[in-house]
Amino acid sequence: MNKHGHVLNGLLLGIGLGFILAPDGSVETLRMIVAVTVPVSLGALFPDIDTEFGRHRKTLHNLPVLGMFIAFPFVFDNLHYVWIGVLTHYVLDVVGSKRGIALFYPFEQEYGFPTGVATKSQYTSVVTLVITATELIIVFTVVYGAGRYGWTVPAV
Ligand SMILES: [Zn+2]
Question: For residue 142, how far is its CA from the centre of ligand 1 (angstroms)?
Answer without folding.
Answer: 26
